[in-house]
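user: can you give me the structure for this one chain? tokens are fine.
assistant: on it. calling the predictor now.
[tool input]
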Amino acid sequence: MAKETTKVLIVEDDPDFAESLMIALSVRDCHVDIARTGEEAIRKFRSLCYDIAFMDIKLPGKNGVESLAEIRGFCPDAYVVMMTGFSEATLLDKARKAGAVDILRKPFRLKEMFDYIENLQNNCSPSVKH
């Protein structure tokens, strides 16, 4: 039986960073889409059930936390890992309360991202680290 492709959404307003992540994940048997805003991420989640999303906290329009809360409203089992280069404790706490699986602090090693994908591909839930 063929292994199912992992569906990943990268939500990042920095086009170069988003493209780099997409290229890295594409070679890991993943279908990768990119959203540049929280609103676009919400639209994409409504049209495709992603296995996991890596979402920047700071986004134009709706920030990542607001977007995560809305996504969890119609997709309560969504696995969303937040990404941030900032250390705003209040926003990070809100992300955890909204249901973020984890928070990757930029810059991070691609291996950290790959570990989530590997866990999903092996039918395991991503580990939650708060």
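assistant: here you go. Residues 6-121 form a domain with the Rossmann fold fold (CATH 3.40.50.2300). The longest strand covers residues 6-11.
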